[in-house]
Structure prediction request, 202 residues.
Amino acid sequence: MIRQGTFKKLAVLNRYYKITQFYSFLKDTAVKGVVVILIFATVLVALEYFFLDFNHLLNTLVVKYSAEIILSFFLLSETVLGLVPPELFIAWASKSAMPWLFLFVLASLSYVGGILAYFIGNRLFLIPAVKNHIENKIAVHITNLRKWGGLFVFIGAMLPIPHSIVSVACGMIKYNFKHYLLWALFRYVRFIIYGFVIFQIF
Prediction:
């Protein structure tokens, strides 16, 4: 009976995700994610070959700026609507003395940045004009979050949808904070995957 009940629940969920086009959205976003990685790698290699010495540039950043400054800027970026692609910071981490440790620090800061973005979204109601503006800007994400809940947080953590925007949306609709924290942990998985790819390039 328990198995039959579980099967029925899964069947209902599967039907719901089909009706709401979750699978199509997931497929399209995953494809975009792969394309983004390939384009990013291709552009970097092309620029490296024809115009810039990225290895020299990254090494200069390591020497010229302290890790604290770069990591602080990254935290700001991951909190405020993803200002800079995290891939650039992962490339920077590859030039550090302990690249995997710095990758873990970056993933942790991204996770913390998402939490801060959640609370920013949660408190936006105090400034109605700002809340309405942002709500209109991310209306699609809010709609998807209401339809798919934690799975959309997972997509934001893993695929090329700005994690901070998804986090702000979670805060705005008061999505369960504990559930948010659990789903957002997949941010670490994304950084590990990107680390394996980018560390091979640099």
